[in-house]
Amino acid sequence: MNVLFVASEVAPFAKTGGLGDVAAALPRALAAQKRGHDVRIVMPMYGRIKGADGAELVIREISLELGGNRVIVSVYAVELPGTEVPVYLVHCPGLYGRQGIYTQDHDEHLRFAVLSWAALHICQRLGFRPDIVHANDWQTALLPILLRTAFAWDRLFSQTRTVLTIHNIGHQGSFDAKVLSDIGLAASAQHFHQDQLREGRINFMLSGLLYANALTTVSPTYAREIQRPEHGVGLDAFLRERSSVLFGILNGIDEDEWNPQLDDKIPHRYSSDDLGGKELNKKALLASAGLPYVPEVPVIGIVSRLAWQKGFDLCFDVLPAMLRHRAVQLVVLGTGEPKYEQLFAALARRFPRQVAYISKFSEPVAHLIEAGSDMFLMPSRYEPCGLNQMYSLRYGTVPIVHRTGGLADTVWHFDRSTGRGNGFVFEHFDEGGLRFALGAALKVWGTGAGADRATWRKLQMNGMQSHFSWDERVAAYEMVYRMVAPGR
Ligand code: ADP
Predict the structure, then answer these.
(1) Confidence (pLDDT) at 488
(2) Which of ligand 1's atoms lies nearest the C-alpha of 310?
(3) Which of 11, 320, 362, 376 could disulfide-pair with 24, CB 3.0 to 4.6 Å?
(4) Nearest to 5, CA basis, from 51, 37, 47
(5) Taking the CA atoms of the chain, what radius of gyration do you get in angstroms?
(6) pLDDT for 158-170, tens place per residue?
(7) Under a CB-based contact definition with an 8 Å cutoff, are residues 196 and 203 in contact?
(8) Could you tell me the distance, in angstroms and rounded to a whole number, from the CA of residue 210 to the centre of ligand 1?
(9) What was the pLDDT predicted at 487?
(10) Residue 194, CB half-sphere, CA atoms under 13 Å: how many?
(11) Separation between Cα atoms, residue 128 and residue 131, nearest integer Å
(12) In degrees to the nearest 10, what's the CA dihedral of 269, 466, 12, 30?
């Protein structure tokens, strides 16, 4: 099949979270030779794009007439590392040459509407006839509507079907309806949800939910959750209506990039046969974080965007109490909302021998935390899939999680009597829940003479033997593609 994959971030070129990882890994797995698909990616050429130095100009100028706006873009191409998949970078410094990938600027709607328009113009210029246009999240959710309206005349797209993957329903791209003319869709107003239009709003994600031929999201549990009012963020009714074409497909992980046996970002490689290297990584992690190394004291790692979604509101009381009463250390990597940054900075000041807070985005530090921690904390309020718990499992780092979304699909509470389970899970999102899961983890870890290393090792092994490769997941996406584009 010919697949056009359009996303606002693709690792390693630009990444703020899981979408960036998935937008690289899924096309890479789809393009594997044995599958025989022609996969191409479109993303913005951000000012701070990484690893695109050798990009070649492939289309000099495309002039987009969007209502009153005339936007000129050029297109550069690079290969997705490790593949021959072309990544078309939409070059438009006026829109993409800013500090961040996402902004609060007044033209955020235009930045991503242009990405969708440009993606389809690229197909036209290159004569690429997609069987599937695969959109991701609100930023590219206008693609289905564009194909049904502004591009409907072009026979190039007569067989094209659309798939929209929801990576996070919490971000929907909701704007004042006035922007319809800015994004060149004033004439298509009747295709947007009429109740919302009357209220003076348009919602990019909703337009994708209504018009994509199939919808996917990134775990089976999240697919069920978003159809309920508690997690649907206002779109649950629309999702229920489309439930027959909504599929939850768990994300995979890049098993070469996140493999303790091959990882060149960590000082000591190790495997489930010999965890000696893991202990050395723990030493290295603590040294680099400026904390003392005490073998019997467990280290809990956190690598996260510090956002409301991630559930750190539960930590304000629970963590200080735990740190005061228990021999435990905490290494936190992440940036985000000031209140959470201040929480971890304050914990580091108050417990200088127990807590380190590293306030930045750093892949090498993320790898070292996965490799050097004993436990990994993800108390997310909601988590569409989550990648870090899967990385943790592979690194023998025992996850402690709230039972939601992809966390519920990958982590099972450990039962000492049966030896089954790979982590610690709390059911209810409240402080009691978090306290319970941390307590259960510290109990199995044990202290002094009570330390039961054999049980802990069993728990680690249960996780390290899990497989999360994309090779298995990609077949599920192919099934969805075939379902919507049966001609192929
Ligand atoms: P989300 O997409 O909601 O942020 P995921 O768990 O799906 O959550 O993906 C997060 C990804 O971003 C992981 O690959 C994680 O390692 C990475 N990440 C998050 N914060 C940082 C950070 N401060 N430094 C390095 N990597 C980070």
Answers:
(1) 64
(2) 3
(3) 11
(4) 37
(5) 23
(6) 999 999 999 999 9
(7) yes
(8) 29
(9) 73
(10) 1
(11) 10
(12) 130
Residues of the chain with CATH 3.40.50.2000: 2-252+471-484, 276-464
Could you tell me which of 189, 191, 378 has the C-alpha nearest to residue 300? 378
CATH number of 2-252+471-484: 3.40.50.2000
Amino acid sitting at position 162? T
- Beta-bridge mates of residue 401: 378, 425
- Cα(19) to ligand 1 centroid in Å equals 9
Q: Whose CA is nearest to atom 24 of ligand 1?
A: 361
Percent of the chain with pLDDT over 90: 93
Distance between CA atoms of 5 and 39, rounded to whole angstroms?
A: 7
Which whole-number Å values give the CA distances from 162 to 2, 156, 215, 481, in the listed order? 12, 14, 9, 9
Query: Cα of 306 to ligand 1 centre, how many Å?
Result: 10
**pLDDT tens digits, one per residue of 302-317:** 999 999 999 999 999 9
**Model confidence at 334, in pLDDT bands (50, 70, 90)?**
very high
Question: Residue 148: phi, psi to the nearest 5?
Answer: -85, -15
Closest residue by Cα to atom 4, ligand 1, is: 17
- 276-464: CATH class: alpha beta
Q: How far is the CA of 266 from the centre of ligand 1 (A)?
A: 17
Tokens of 189: 């107003």
CA-wise closest residue to 399 among 385, 414, 384: 414
Q: Is pLDDT at 482 greater than 90 in this prediction?
A: yes
Q: Taking residues 408-421, what's their average pLDDT? A: 96
pLDDT at 372: 98
Task: Identify the H or E element spanning 285.
Answer: helix 276-289
Please choose from 304, 308, 333, 362 the residue to mutate so as to test ligand 1's pocket, defined by most ligand atoms within 8 A of CB.
304
Q: What is the pTM of this model?
A: 0.94
- Say yes or no to pLDDT of 396 above 90: yes
Counting ligand 1 atoms within 8 A of each CB, the residue from 387, 391, 397, 404 with the most, and so the one to mutate, is: 387
Is the per-residue pLDDT at 203 higher than 80? yes
Q: What is the pLDDT of residue 270?
A: 98
Q: Which helix (H) or strand (E) holds 161?
A: strand 161-166
Segment 420-460, tens digit of pLDDT:
999 999 999 999 999 999 999 999 999 877 678 899 999 99
Query: Measuring from each residue's beta carbon to the nearest atom of ligand 1, which residues come in under 6 Å?
Result: 17-18, 21, 303-305, 333-335, 361-363, 366, 385-388
Dihedral angle at the C-alpha atoms of 246, 165, 119, 98, nearest 10 degrees? 150
Q: How far apart are CA 393 and CA 467, in angstroms?
A: 9
Q: Is 8 helix (H, G, I), strand (E, B) or coil?
A: coil
Q: Taking all residues of the chain, what is their mean pLDDT, rounded to a whole number?
A: 96
Map tokens 């996850």 to a residue.
399
pLDDT at 91 over 90: yes
Q: Which two tokens stand for residue 147?
A: 């194909």
